Sequence to fold (121 residues):
Amino acid sequence: MIKRFQMLLSISTCAATPWCVRSLMYLEFSQSTFKGAELNATDTRGFTCAVDVDGNQCYGAAGKQVLKSLQNNYQIITTSNTAGIDCAILLAMGSFFTICYVVLLQVKLTSSAKAVKLSTQ
Fold:
């Protein structure tokens, strides 16, 4: 029985990871500024880097630029704020697993409960 719950926990943790990562990355990077890159409206990326020769070592000066650069490698990262939707999804997942646990607990308790006759001596 414990192994089933451990398996369910690992599955639910893996299932929740995309929504956690997407929101955390946006909230962490979106309002940040970074050194090493300078804003440049003439560049196609919107920034330039003095030490970046091939365009792969510098990700941007502003948080949204960094998120867009990271999005090229990691599709889960987004430049739009999805924290509300992500929290709703995680709450729905948590509610679902809680309801499943309560139902299974009730089934186990009612199937194993036996009436005990009290002796009146």
Notes: Strands lie at 37-39, 47-49. The mean pLDDT is 79.
